[in-house]
Structure formats: C-alpha cells, structure tokens
Amino acid sequence: MKELSIKEYCLDIGKEGKRWEGSCIDMIPNGFGMLFDKNGKLEYKGCMHDGKKTCYGEEFYSNGLIQYRGTFMNDKRHGYGCLY
To answer: Model-level pTM?
Structure first.
C-alpha cells in the first residue's frame, strides 16, 4: 500500500499562474485551502479533491465579494448553494 504524503503547501498550479494554499496529497490540492488567481486575489476557499472543487466552498468576484457559496462536485457547482 502506498504511503500518502499529506502536507500544507503554497503551490503554483496551472499555466495561468494560480496558487493553492492548503492541504495537498502528493503535491495535488486535497482538503481545505484557498485558491488565488494570477494577481494574488482570492478566487475560491473550500475543499478540493484531486485538484477539483468538491463538497462545500465559496467562489469570489475579483473585488473580494462572495459570488457563490455552496456545494461542488468535480469542479462544478452542484446541489445546494446561493449565488450572489
């Protein structure tokens, strides 16, 4: 059985310059954390699984206000939530 390496990281992901600050398993976002855009603005705060938005989280407009608060599945809004 493979041993998982669970750590807290500040991780650059994607070619767009996004940054993940939170839990990772084998350098892939897994668990709770925050995703920032290329300009360092908070884009998403919540849970990730295998690098995809999963379970509960919040998406933010570029001005910092909440855009959506609710549940996600495979990087898409899914189930209950509120769009602002």
So the answer is: 0.85
What are residue 71's phi and psi, to 5 degrees? -100, 155
In the chain, the DSSP E strands lie at 6-13, 18-25, 28-36, 42-49, 52-60, 66-73, 76-83
Q: Give the separation between CA 83 and CA 66, rounded to whole angstroms.
A: 8
Smallest Cα–Cα separation from 64: which of 82, 43, 38, 37? Answer: 43
Structure token pair of residue 72: 């996600």
Grouping H, G, I as helix, E, B as strand and the rest as coil, residue 64 is: coil
- Tally of residues, the chain: 84
Q: What is the mean pLDDT of each run of 10 residues along the chain (84 residues)?
A: 62 81 88 93 96 96 96 96 96
* Interstrand relation of 66-73 and 28-36 (parallel, antiparallel or unpaired): unpaired
